[in-house]
């Protein structure tokens, strides 16, 4: 494709959309001579037929793009041209087919978050689709733009399946080189678009604004966050400012550990293994799991209260957003191990574990890996050697 259509694929930034029987991949493409205010993407689609279809989307910008936090997208103020091309230089017939209208290309548009009519609609992102669920009136509009090959009989006119007109859409015809015949290029206005890739806008190594850097330094502390190009921006929770991030992280504090299981490992030596769990986050799903090996007082020993042998805390569930690192040894008798505090007057035995939660997040369009220090306190009843769930929790250290 690159030789046939004279472009180079930039695979450093890829937008992937997965749906039932459908996957699309959007790449930024470069030309030897780059025109100003022009962004071009290669879109490769695979549906239930497993036959890849490719097209080039060309965005003619009227002005530089502006980031829109309400939909985590970019206001492009542009006209987009969709042109089917031959995939992988084979004789595959490329027509941008959809299951509803074979031989034509369809686009989902969204009216949520806009104040104007159809002229200000934008290509629907996953944020739009998520917000649309449960609405009494759908804000998602499926529009078929009639990007058809010459044999399909398509007239090139846009058709809206929701019976809502889309204004100011123009269609032009151009020849598509290769063995696919003559294809119709459909052009339409675009105001917001998260699938529009521009390597200069999405380069995770590019500099943040000084205001954003200052906000992150003040919140996490200098050296406690970094741009992480290994993270997939589209798989991270988006945050447009520190206030949104703070509200989310504060919501993680509201749970307590509960006992999941208690198993006697060695009757003669009175060794028991307890597992306690706490829901750390409901979305994305993640649990903190404390595995504790302890010696309990019984007829086989002269202990007055339990003795902790080993404490290990793990994070189970989604490890894209969160990861956990326990500091020091798991042995309370070690100098760098968990701290044990006995308080007979309160009838409690407390073990304290320190560590850090590593958090992956999409902050203002940048993939960020940040860390927060936390302290975990597991409290047992002094007299019964059972977990006191009400007092077993965690909190931020910084």
Automatic annotation (TrEMBL):
Residue span of region Disordered: 153-183
Compositional bias annotation for Low complexity: 157-183
Record-given protein name: Uncharacterized protein
């Amino acid at each position: 494709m690159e030789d046939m259509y004279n472009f180079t694929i930039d695979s450093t930034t890829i937008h992937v959309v997965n749906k039932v029987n459908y996957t699309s991949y959007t790449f930024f493409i470069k030309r030897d001579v780059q025109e100003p205010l022009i962004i071009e993407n290669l879109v490769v689609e695979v549906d239930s037929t497993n036959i890849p279809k490719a097209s080039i989307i060309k965005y003619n910008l009227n002005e530089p793009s502006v980031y829109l936090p309400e939909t985590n997208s970019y206001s492009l103020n542009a006209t987009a041209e969709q042109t089917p091309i031959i995939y992988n230089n084979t004789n595959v017939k490329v027509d941008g087919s959809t299951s509803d209208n074979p031989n034509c290309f369809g686009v989902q548009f969204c009216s949520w978050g806009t104040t104007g009519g159809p002229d200000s609609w934008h290509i629907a992102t996953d944020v739009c689709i998520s917000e649309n669920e449960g609405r009494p009136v759908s804000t998602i509009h499926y529009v078929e733009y009639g990007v058809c090959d010459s044999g399909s009989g398509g007239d090139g006119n846009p058709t809206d399946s929701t019976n809502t007109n889309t204004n100011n859409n123009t269609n032009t015809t151009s020849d598509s080189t290769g063995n696919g015949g003559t294809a119709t290029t459909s052009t339409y206005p675009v105001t917001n678009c998260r699938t529009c890739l521009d390597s200069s806008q999405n380069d995770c190594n590019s500099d943040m604004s000084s205001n954003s850097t200052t906000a992150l330094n003040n919140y996490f502390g200098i050296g406690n966050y970094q741009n992480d190009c290994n993270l997939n921006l589209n798989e991270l929770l988006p945050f447009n400012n520190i206030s949104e991030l703070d509200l989310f992280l504060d919501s993680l504090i509201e749970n307590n550990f509960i006992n999941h299981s208690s198993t006697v490992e060695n009757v003669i030596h009175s060794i028991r293994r307890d597992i306690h769990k706490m829901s750390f986050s409901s979305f994305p799903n993640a649990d903190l799991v404390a595995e504790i090996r302890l010696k309990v007082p019984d007829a086989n020993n002269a202990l007055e209260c339990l003795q902790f042998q080993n404490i290990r805390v793990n994070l189970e569930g989604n490890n894209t957003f969160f990861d956990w690192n326990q500091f020091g040894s798991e042995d309370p008798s070690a100098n760098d191990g968990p701290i044990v505090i006995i308080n007979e007057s309160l009838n409690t035995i407390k073990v304290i574990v320190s560590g850090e939660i590593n958090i992956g997040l999409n902050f203002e369009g940048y993939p960020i890996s940040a860390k927060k220090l936390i302290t975990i306190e597991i409290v047992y009843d002094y007299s019964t050697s059972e977990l006191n769930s009400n007092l077993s929790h965690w909190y931020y250290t910084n």
